[in-house]
From TrEMBL:
<keyword id="KW-0408">Iron</keyword>
<protein>
    <submittedName>
        <fullName>Peroxidase</fullName>
    </submittedName>
</protein>
<dbReference type="InterPro" id="IPR011008">
    <property type="entry name" value="Dimeric_a/b-barrel"/>
</dbReference>
<keyword id="KW-0560">Oxidoreductase</keyword>
<dbReference type="GO" id="GO:0004601">
    <property type="term" value="F:peroxidase activity"/>
</dbReference>
<dbReference type="GO" id="GO:0020037">
    <property type="term" value="F:heme binding"/>
</dbReference>
<dbReference type="GO" id="GO:0046872">
    <property type="term" value="F:metal ion binding"/>
</dbReference>
<keyword id="KW-0575">Peroxidase</keyword>
<dbReference type="GO" id="GO:0005829">
    <property type="term" value="C:cytosol"/>
</dbReference>
<dbReference type="InterPro" id="IPR006314">
    <property type="entry name" value="Dyp_peroxidase"/>
</dbReference>
<keyword id="KW-0479">Metal-binding</keyword>
Amino acid sequence: MGADVSLELDDIQSGALRPRPTPYAATYILLKIHDRSAGKELMRRLSVAVASAAHPASPLGDTWLNALLTFHGLTALGVPQQSLDSFAWELRQGMASRASALGDTGESAPEHWEKPLGTSDVHVVLVALAPDRGLLETALGRARESLRGLPGVEAIWQQDCHALPTEREPFGFRDGISHPAIEGSGVPGTNPAEVPLKAGELVLGYRDELGGFPPMPQPDVLGRNGTYVVFRKLHQRVAAFRRYLRERATSPADEELLAAKMMGRWRSGAPLARCPLHDDPELGADRARNNAFDYRADDPTGYHTPIGSHIRRCNPRDSEVAGVARLHRMIRRGTAYGPLLPEGMLEDDGADRGLVFAFVGAHLGRQFEFVQSEWVNGGEFIGLGDARDPIAGSADGQGRFSIPRRPIPRRLDGLPRFVVTRGGEYCFMPSLRALRWLSELP
């Protein structure tokens, strides 16, 4: 795979390319740099503490620490203005400034975000990850050691997350199924029919799907082998989702069917494109088969997987859509936080639960922002007007969702907002060499 592309895996941070283990535990830590010298020393320490994408043959191979920088963080470190100006303009603006385009309005608007998310205080994002809580302490130990004796760097926020052995997220669906293969990474994709993406779609310094090189921060040592990361905390209204299904279904089995139609998969992970009439938990759990489908051959009309369903919007695959779907592919990581709502409970218990999302890609604009604004919060690209994603879209209680059916389509009205943005950041994930370069800024 990708024999003509040689990625410098030992210089690329692990989170850019490597799949996460199953199950796993993770912790996100936000840092503020009060003192520039302390910030630069932190970069020096992180350059040896973070894990690279070159997977070591050891029990700790899936235990890692990664480091991301916001634009405010790059400024706090004293990155020259000429270099700051070379970063993607979306990063320079920040996620809070892009709220309207992303559908972060109303309850999801930045003025309601969990502080300090979306503010100028967030400079560094540390991500510690491991197969279990015990090993997570090893990764967190690396983070603590990097911060030891640096009073000029302050930890200002922390979020603990987890991926269960069942791989279920709070709404009850198996998550983390669809991932693209990247040329030269050595990591296979989960859809055998999908041609590997050019490395430049995910990592800076390599050719992308358009045949050129994506714009890269300068100098080369700062940009090469880096990538952009979108970090978002999303609260999920699980009880409201269950009540919506209960009120519109004719039976418990119909509830599951409606949920599957909205998502595009049964809760087990089995795709409707393969089993449209009933769930198939064995298929859903089979990593070799649960993402092995396309829409032209398996479901061109949407009678199995509705055109407006969540997974079909976020990854149209080989469907005929406005634009080339491959130009908008990215790596998506979702990690649950908070306790699961007990089975059968239809009233909210007041606990905060949801997903911490990380989207990785070399093009913030035509990858994450395009998908969020045009595919999740719009429907024109698939001929559905202003209809939004039935699960993740920024609904206002007037949303609608159509399920193709003969002789008359089934229509769901009054879709409320099931997912509320609690905050987020646009980040740059520098290479290991770039971390050292940042530590040596004059």
